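User: two proteins, same treatment. go.

Assistant:
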Amino acid sequence: MDDQPNFVTSPFDVIRQEDGEREFWRARDLHKLLGYDRWENFEKVIAKAKVACKYNGRDVDANFHETTKPRRVGSKGGQTPIRDVELTRYACYMAVLSADSSKPMVGHAKDYFAEQTRRQELADAELFAQLSEDEKRLIYRAQLSLYNRKLAQTAHEAGVVTRSDHADFLSMLATRACMVASQKTTSRR
């Protein structure tokens, strides 16, 4: 009997690929694991995941790397290239969230990625706690700058053009934020 603990490896870790510092999942491996019989059906899932990725402001091409892989054809060992997609961790998670929830392995996949996300959050929080106040302040400034850019972009897309429009837009957001905070306070009582 060996002294090593017997760790159960997730099937999602088994199909994960590594290429130097980059980790990815092949969509063709993932679609089989999630219980999709036909690639064409899983392509629809990938398309929905790409929309979510774009909506969240992520680079679709960087997260969904289109590629091909060889497939054996015939009895003489011939090969033909077939389409595949290399999914980053984020893209894989978006694909799982977009998948058919009635498939049992989709539920397991959602649990796996939620657990991995929580582990990363805890690790990040521990690392953040070790930073100096000046380092934390720089991070907060960078986040605020990013949020302000997103707010300005959203305002522009909503038709806010003049300074007066912008003031009205911010006032409306502040009013809604106060209403939500008030509702949360009232519901806790």
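Protein 2:
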Amino acid sequence: MIRIAASARRDLDEGYDFYESQEIGLGDYFLSSVKADLESLRVTGGVHRIAHADYHRLLCKTFPFAVYYTKSDQEITIFAVIDCRREPAWVRGHLRQAGRTSGSSQ
């Protein structure tokens, strides 16, 4: 099972808004591309290197974004979907905050 934390949903909304403001329809393409990457975790979850604390990092194929997630025996939880152009200190702070507010849904 893949769960998407509220923090990651907010990240996806921000990414959508950014790309949609660049060109109409690009936000939809962003979401469909990233969702395909998220679905790939059903097969590859846990193989990505641990980038921070207990978070694995999947680099998205089409957009310069990284997916930060944890994996247990039965579940993958996505905590953040972050633009790779962000400052590393910002990313660490965002991940700390995401871990504290991890309300999730499927």
